[in-house]
């Protein structure tokens, strides 16, 4: 591959990158999936339990805000 082909390849790559960046600017910003939880929050919600199953942990992580107000 000579220098001309290399330069053309780089230009095509830059054009593709610009198309992606332009598309990202045009689309609305993505909304976060949900609030993140720290380990301390999770620990506090599961305190008093000797063991927690994966389902119990998921139930705490994916609890709706209204559920948190009702239960504590």
Descriptive terms for the model:
72 residues, mainly alpha, 4 helices
Overview of the molecule:
- This protein has 72 residues and is mainly α.
- It has helices spanning 3-26, 39-45, 54-61, 65-71.
- The protein has a domain at 39-71.
- 0% of the residues are buried.
- The mean pLDDT is 77.
Low-confidence stretches: none
- Tell me about the largest β-sheet: none
Q: Tell me the fraction of residues in β-strands, as a range.
A: under 5%
- Can you tell me the overall shape? elongated
Please compute the radius of gyration using only Cα atoms. 24 Å
What distance separates the N and C termini? 67 Å
Helicity range of the residues? Answer: 55-70%
N-to-C order of helices and strands:
HHHH
Summarize the structure.
By secondary structure, the protein is mainly α. The protein has helices at 3-26, 39-45, 54-61, 65-71.
């Amino acid at each position: 591959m000579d220098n001309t082909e290399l330069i053309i390849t780089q230009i095509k790559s830059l054009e593709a990158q610009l198309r992606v960046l332009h598309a990202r600017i045009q689309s609305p910003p993505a909304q976060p999936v949900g609030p993140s939880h720290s380990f301390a929050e999770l620990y506090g919600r599961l305190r008093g339990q000797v063991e927690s199953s994966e389902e119990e942990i998921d139930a705490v992580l994916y609890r709706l805000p209204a559920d948190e107000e009702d239960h504590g």
